[in-house]
Amino acid sequence: MKQETPNVFLFDIEGTTTPIEFVHKVLFPYSDSKFLSFFREQFPEEKRFEEFKTASEKETEFDGPLEKTPESLSRFCSYLVSKDRKLGALKETQGKIWKRGYESGELKSTIFSDVPSFLGKIRNSGKSAAVYSSGSVEAQVLIFRYCEAGDLTPYFRSYFDTEVGGKREPESYLRIADRLGVSPNEIVFFTDIKEEAEAAISVGIRPFLMERPGNVPQGPHSFPTLRTFDDVPPDFLGT
C-alpha cells in the first residue's frame, strides 16, 4: 500500500497527551468519590441501568447482585473503576461527574508540555487533529477545554470514543477514517498500547508508540516510538 503524507493526526489521551498518573490518581478517584451523591441526585434511565445490570452479571468477582439503588450502583461503578473496565454507561457517568468538577473549578487537567505546540504546528501546516479514546467524547472535550495550558479544543476536528468500536479492533479505525473522509493511510495514530497500534496498522494507519513517564512497558514490537512530539518527523508537517 502506498504511504500517503499524513493529513490527520489521531491522538489517544491517557499516556499520550495526558499523564497516566492524572487519569488514575486524579480523575478516577474524583469520580469514585462522587458516584453515590450523583446517583442519589440523578439515577440512570432504564436503558442505562440495564447496561449496568447486564455487565454486573458477567462480573464474577463483584459481590452482587446489582440492585436498583444509588448505593448498589455506586458500589458497582467503584468496582468497575478498580478493574479499569471500559463500559459505555460507566464512561458516560464519569463524564457527567467530571463535567461538574471542571465547571466548578475542582478539576483542571494536566497535559504534557509538548502537546500545545505540536497542535499548533499541525494547524499551521493545514492538517487536522482528532482524538480517539475509551473515555466518552464529553470527557475528552473536558480534558482539553479545562487544562493548565488553556482551552485546546479549537485545535481538534473530531472526537471518537468506543461508540465506533473497541480500540483493539481494526474495524474501529476504518470507521474513523470513513467519518473523517480520508484514506486510512493518510492518518497517523499516537498511542501507548501496542495492541492498539497493531489494530491501526492492520488497516493502513501509521502508528507511533509513546514512551511517556509512567507508561506501562510494552512487549516486543517493531513500531516507531516517541518520547515527545518534538521528535515527530518534520516531513509529516511539510517542513
UniProtKB/TrEMBL annotation:
InterPro entries according to UniProt = Enolase-ppase_E1, HAD-like_sf, HAD-SF_hydro_IA, HAD_sf
Q: Name one GO molecular function term.
A: acireductone synthase activity
EC id: 3.1.3.77
CDD domains this protein is in? HAD_EP
Q: Which Pfam families match?
A: Hydrolase
* Keyword Protein biosynthesis on entry: no
- Which keywords describe this protein according to UniProt? Amino-acid biosynthesis, Hydrolase, Methionine biosynthesis
Annotated NCBIfam families: enolase-ppase, HAD-SF-IA-v1
Q: What is this protein called?
A: Acireductone synthase
Species for this entry: Leptospira fletcheri
Gene from which the chain derives: mtnC
